[in-house]
Design goal:
The chain has helices spanning 20-30, 32-54, 60-70, 73-88, 93-100, 103-118, 122-138, 141-152, 155-177, 184-193, 195-213, 219-229, 232-264. It is mostly helical and 269 residues long.
Length: 269
């Protein structure tokens, strides 16, 4: 499945107009470029599994070149920023910047990026999931805080919706070339048949990621973070982040579908 990075969504603030300089500082605080680099690395690595499943023994260097073009970090960042900035255009960014300029905000932002890169390793991901399972067994305060964070920010439902939409775009990309005959109903039926397994995988991954990422964050700091995400500004940020990642993943998925269809027919792009 395509994983959308977890972050903070619902209604934007109004009455303000974000400046380009403020948006620059917000992207710097979130380290958006580093996140796109991570998505690029992860997508390129996972593309080999797609090749093996769809056209084993073929593709070669041509597939590698196509995938690297699809996952070009600058393209990803441009797509992400366009959608993100459009959502944040009327938001009060100064309050968000104030949070991320605190020791707590800066520390959490760094941990989220570092954890997202580390969890690309299968060994780290498995360890993170085991740590979450241990939390489930103990029922500690940390588990309650993570569950509240996920609930306040709609992390499970939004990630599941994003994965389903991305998978739909992949099928549309496949069908656009003509080698795969699928009606819209066929695509929707196939996508929805995956919903339960995607939801289960998403829950494990999201809570494993949070357990790992916030391991060194105190309960008091995590409470501050949760409270920030529940504000109007925090929800605006969450909406913008999901808009940005949705734009990235849906675009990538469609182009991967196109490339997969062409290479499945034996064409070199």
């Amino acid at each position: 499945m395509v994983r959308i990075l977890i972050f903070l969504c619902v209604l934007p603030s109004w009455g303000w107009s974000a400046t380009s300089a403020e948006l620059d500082r917000l992207h710097a605080a979130l380290d958006s470029r580093a996140l796109m680099d991570i998505l690029s690395e992860e997508g390129i690595a996972q593309s080999e599994d797609l090749r093996s499943d769809m056209f084993p023994g073929r593709g070669g260097a041509g597939w590698t070149v196509s995938v690297r073009q699809i996952y070009d970090p600058e393209r990803l960042f441009s797509t992400f920023r366009k959608a993100f900035d459009a959502e944040m255009a009327e938001a009060a960014i100064d309050e968000l910047l104030a949070f991320y300029n605190t020791d707590t905000g800066a520390h959490i932002a760094d941990l989220e990026v570092d954890a997202r890169r580390a969890i690309m390793s299968e060994e780290v991901e498995d360890a993170a999931k085991r740590a979450y399972e241990n939390l489930l067994e103990t029922g500690t305060e940390r588990l309650a805080l993570l569950e509240e964070f996920a609930d306040v920010n709609g992390l499970i439902d939004r990630n599941v919706a994003g994965a389903l939409n991305s998978n739909l775009q992949f099928f549309k990309g496949l069908a656009s070339v003509g080698s795969f005959e699928m009606t819209e109903n066929d695509m929707l039926s196939e996508v929805w048949s995956q919903e339960q397994s995607i939801r289960e995988d998403t829950e494990q991954w999201v809570f494993g990621y949070m357990t790992f990422a916030y391991e060194t964050v105190s309960s008091a700091e995590l409470r501050t973070y949760i409270d920030m995400t529940a504000t109007r500004q925090g929800r605006a940020l969450n909406r913008a982040l999901f808009a940005g990642f949705d734009a990235v993943f849906q675009g990538v998925s469609y182009r991967l579908g196109e490339a997969t269809a062409q290479f499945s027919m034996g064409d070199e792009l």
